[in-house]
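Troubleshooting entry. The earlier prediction with magnesium ion gave an output that would not parse, so I re-checked the input for stray whitespace and re-submitted. Clean input:
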Amino acid sequence: MSRIHEALKKAEQERAANQGGAQLDPTPVAAVDSPVMPEMASHRVPDPVAVAAMMPAFASPFSVDTMLARCAHMEWKPDLGTMLFMNGDDSKRGTEEFRTLRSRLYHMREKMTLKKLLVTSALPKEGKSFTSSNLAQVLVRQHGRRVLLIDADLRGPRLHLMLGTTAGPGLSDYLQGKSDEFAIMQRGPMENLFFVPSGTGIEDPAELVGNGKLKVLLQRVEPLFDWIIIDSPPAIPVSDASVLAKACDGVLMVVRSNSTPSDVARKAREEFPDQALVGVVLNGTSDEAAPYARYYYEAYEKRQTTTV
Ligand SMILES: Nc1ncnc2c1ncn2[C@@H]1O[C@H](COP(=O)(O)OP(=O)(O)OP(=O)(O)O)[C@@H](O)[C@H]1O
Ligand SMILES: [Mg+2]
């Protein structure tokens, strides 16, 4: 029996016992990680997409909590200089901009399916990890919102350092088939914020992100979260980000103020021809330069731009 099935079944039994009602038959969920024999295909649910789509029917808040209770509780020691929402002071410089970014994303969400969001940029050190981690934090600041932050930058993982936690087990362990989804998710001091670090023993990042298992992971965990924020490597030097984007609903592009050349930013956008660019974050603006910078990039992209 799959571990998800086990957890769901237990939760449903508890729920039924509490309500004195009949127990739901969770059989289809057994297909989540059970091999599907051809002759049994009509009795099982072989497609992880279909399974993921069915999960919310079983996943009452109680059962989701039951499943997520299996994730490791870790003692994070975040870098309070850059993790803007982790010291209890929500008025630090930059916090307001992240709240603006949050409301713009909710605005976009009214027009399109938007849960799995890839954060990328053209070049290294433009603020992808800074943006993805603070965005995840501001999203869980809203009551009841559950967020999963994934470090999919297998070439230069940094999120675990920013959050002050361990790098593994993590994404690479899942992609290599060494760990299941609950073994790689951890939670720290912030309620409802879950984190998948990069993982350990990463030898061939391109092969790992392209082996198809990331999509399966996202399909499995998607019903458990309101948002899934994925940090990625820079888009121009390597192709990982464009591969990752195919498993996501949209792309958020970070541009470094006074640093990223506009033709390079434009080229990075071309790496995602089929993906929805949901916005541009202009990172590292000075207070004086922000309005002009915003004007410049809106003219360039005609998308929602947020300055940080
Ligand atoms: N707006 C900001 N305010 C303060 N510090 C910032 C800001 N943006 C980025 N930083 C800091 O700059 C450094 C580089 O940022 P970050 O790691 O987010 O870039 P990156 O694009 O993810 O880099 P890489 O391509 O190497 O993954 C980090 O130390 C980060 O904390
Ligand atoms: Mg980074």
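This one parsed fine. Confidence is low (pLDDT under 50) at residues 18-59, 291-302.
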